[in-house]
Design a protein that fits this description.
This protein is of the alpha/beta class and 353 residues long. It has two domains: 183 residues, no CATH class; 151 residues, Rossmann fold, CATH 3.40.50.720. The chain contains ten helices and 14 strands. Strand 10, helix 5 and strand 11 form a beta-alpha-beta unit.
């Protein structure tokens, strides 16, 4: 997703570049349809389209495309004969578009980038016409308008599962082939970390690498100092429960509660229990978890069913002891819920902060 604003930036700077995108990937391949990268006239690449021989072939094609200013499509068969071959032997097939004319579609890329920044969903359509040459056009369609598309059914499927699809388009020219990449533009999942202590800091670093948009909340200024976190992590200083409750929560929101004490944990959890988050987890020992559970249920702040949906103690059981290991166990549980819709529960005490 970060490739889109980069395309806008390069276009506005006037520097030449190629936009690369995987149009289709069949069988066993290193990347899937919709993966994007930027290729420069000297072959340098930002992002990745698969690495190894696939990427090397794409880089060579991009150098020529930047020189000729003609788009081209690269079909790669990943069917090397032996492990020592340069060509991958995974057995799949990839179709990659290399487009040095992406600057002409600056408006569409800009609209998509802005929508993602504002956490709005939509479809990016990349149309290629191949005959005497290869010509491209990119169009941004907000989700609310996607039902009017000729590819409306495909668009619904893409938005539902988050996967891009390549479909055949119509053409009146017998020697021309039209393909449309229907690409869902879905904001990165939002991770709210209640607590900017050691675990919160370590988790923020890992979650950012895993593709989460990260916000950290604490009531202590020294633990919301932006210098403690990687660029891109947003921090907020104030009452933790109130601040977390003020953030709009949807089915792509993940909430991790790792504050400095059980009272802050309980108040934050109480503020989150009735919200439609994909994941809510609270760190603590078994005794602490049991006390918070009893307190919330007795007060009528949570039902048994609502409590059972909370991951507490938090994280997967990987034998974590150190702060980075604990953050890893939590991050792994977030990925499991994101990719599989569920995750195992941590059966052991986790007392470290």
């Amino acid at each position: 997703m970060n490739i889109l604003p980069r395309i806008v930036e390069l276009t506005d700077s006037g520097r030449p570049f190629c936009a690369g995108v995987v149009l289709s990937a069949e069988g066993s391949t290193p990347r899937e349809a919709g993966v994007r990268a930027i290729l420069h006239p000297n072959g340098r690449i930002e992002g990745t389209l698969g690495g190894g021989a696939v990427e090397a072939a794409t880089q060579r094609q991009a150098i020529e495309a930047c020189r000729s200013q003609r788009a081209s499509i690269l079909d790669v068969e990943l069917r090397g004969e032996a492990a020592g071959d340069d060509m991958p032997i995974c057995g799949g097939r990839m179709r990659i578009l290399v487009d040095p004319t992406a600057a002409k579609d600056r408006a569409a890329y800009g609209q998509a980038a802005t929508a993602l920044q504002e956490r709005r969903r939509g479809i990016l359509l990349t149309t290629t016409r191949t005959g005497a040459g290869t010509y491209t056009a990119v169009c941004w369609v907000p989700e609310s308008d996607s039902s009017a598309l000729p590819e409306a059914q495909v668009a619904r499927e893409c938005l539902a599962d988050g996967k891009a699809r390549l479909v055949s388009g119509s053409t009146s020219e017998p020697a021309e082939t039209v393909e449309v990449l229907v690409e869902p533009m879905v904001p990165e999942p939002l991770l709210l970390i209640a607590g900017g202590g050691h675990v919160g800091q370590a988790l923020a670093r890992q979650a950012l690498l895993l593709g989460f948009e990260v916000m950290v909340f604490d009531d202590r200024p020294e633990f919301t100092d932006p210098d403690l976190f990687p660029q891109g992590v947003r921090t907020h200083c104030g009452d933790i429960a109130t601040s977390v409750a003020a953030v709009p929560v949807g089915e792509d929101t993940y909430i991790v509660i790792v504050t400095r004490g059980h009272q802050h944990d309980a108040e934050t959890l109480k503020a989150c229990l009735h919200r439609p988050a994909a994941y809510i987890g609270m760190m603590g020992s078994r005794r602490k978890v049991a006390l918070v559970r009893e307190s919330l249920i007795e007060a009528g702040s949570a039902t048994e069913e609502e409590w059972d949906a909370v991951h507490a103690p938090i994280g997967l059981d990987i034998g974590a002891e150190t702060v980075p290991e604990i953050a890893t166990s939590i991050a792994a549980q977030l990925v499991a819920v994101r990719r599989k819709g569920r995750a195992d529960r941590e059966p052991r005490d986790m007392r470290s902060r």
